[in-house]
Amino acid sequence: MSTPASVLRDAFERHTWATLRLLDHLEALDAGTITEGVPGTYGPILETLSHLVNADGRYLERLEHPVLPDYEPGPPEPIGELRTRVQALASRWEAALGRLESGTLVARIDRSATDGWVVDPAETLLLLQALHHGDDHRAQVCSTLGALGLEVPDLDVWSFWEDRRS
Question: How many C-beta atoms surround the C-beta of residue 97 within 10 A?
Fold first, then answer.
């Protein structure tokens, strides 16, 4: 029987699975392809995935610290490094969800002293944003692949569920 906690754990497991599956798909492509982008998306494929992974790390940091230093994106990371980071983030998501389940996950966001935006409590916002953000940018990468006439990996929940059962 499903519980609220198991549903949320499954959602984050799928979040990780979809990003790793997309990285696996991209690794088989010509190296020049991952530097391509199309209008209406975040940007080139590798930049988009680096942004997604970096954002996941920042959402997790926000679960610990109400104020984060300003973020300056660096150059896109190679696919192998992104895969390693996604795998490490998966265990951090699992730990955060464990704290949520035990009632010890408490997050607050203080954007800055100048804009005064405060979210307290912020756990729900951060968890929902991580899932949405990941789906949004994975879809942009898949749209880019399709626009380039390339095969698009199947990242939907049905595929996740089937893959998990095998």
Answer: 19
Find out if CATH 1.20.120.450 is the number for domain 4-165.
yes
- The domain limits of the chain are 4-165
Residues in the chain: 166
> Which segments of 52-148 are extended strands (E)?
109-110, 118-119
Degrees, nearest 5: CA angle 92-81-144: 100
Residue type, 11: A
Question: What one-character DSSP code corresponds to residue 74?
Answer: -
Say what the pTM is. Answer: 0.93
Q: Mind listing the pLDDT tens digit for each residue in 137-164?
A: 999 999 999 999 999 999 999 999 999 8
User: pLDDT digit string (tens) for 18-70?
Assistant: 999 999 999 999 999 999 999 999 999 999 999 999 999 999 999 988 777 77
Provide long-range contacts, Cβ within 8 A and 24+ apart, for 41-46.
41/140, 41/141, 41/143, 41/144, 42/137, 42/140, 44/76, 45/141, 45/144, 45/145, 46/76, 46/77, 46/79
